[in-house]
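User: Run a structure prediction on this.
Assistant: Running it now.
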Amino acid sequence: MTVTIRGRELLAALGGAAAAWPLAARAQQPTLPVIGFLYPGPPETIAKFVTGFRKGLGELGYVEGRNVAIEYRWGYDESGRLPELAADLVSRPVTVIVTPGSAAAALTAKAATATIPIVYTSGADPVRAGLVVSLNRPGGNVTGINTMNFGLEAKRLELLHQLLDRDARIAVLVNPSGSQAQSMITDLQAAASAMGRQLEILTATTNRDISPAFSDALRRRAGAVLISPDPLFTNRPAQLAILAARHAMPTIYAFREFAEVGGLMSYGASQTEAYRQAGTYTGRVLKGEKPADLPILQATKFEFVVNMRTAEALGIDVPPTLLAIADEVIE
């Protein structure tokens, strides 16, 4: 009898231990690393670019939901929300923070943490903006991809210069609250002066200001508008293309997506490629590399796109010299 009871006790003990094994195994499984994704605009504006980011992650072996998680935080164009959203990601805490397409978001994340790695994409000069100490050795906890789009404004102005009559004014739409606004205006005014062009500065700080800005361009007798690559504008390709068509205003933009939806011209680096590179850099950070040792990647390929359907609708004869240097002509 004694042996039987002990045998039953042993079996019960073994059974209980066996039942506990799966729970223990699950408890010992490592938790997924978490990427904090901080973007100042709404999600629908960058859906295709997020796909590029995931592709870059995949090149390093990371698949969302399988071996990495992503926490998305959207600012919906309310810049005042960025500090709150960044603080929320830091408090989780996340493994790395990604701030695509916005120097302001990157600076906000940097202010929120000095220890969590940050990977950014932006057209602003990262040294001038205060993100890193140098391009080759960023130092600190920030690295990323510089699309150089703010540095291309003089080139966009030159393309409009070749399109317009000599006495036509060129208007520039800027967000005065942007970190690069004043330096960009200074550079553009110097470039316009060298071309013998008169420059008109239009401002918009919210979406509600954009339509009145186009009306202001007409009142100032501008012959064309240059749209600066501020996130307030880059998030709205369709809206800006429609406004330009409504006001019969030749317009140049930073990204090809604008020309694809009806904008006249675009010149700039590929956003899809920049997001992919951000994904690969994020993957490298997840594998243990330090942002301080990852040099800032700079865009090397720039695309000039002309939409001839829009040119015909506006009654514009695009000079053969411009068409000859275009990377793509949309017929």
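The two ends are 94 Å apart (CA to CA).
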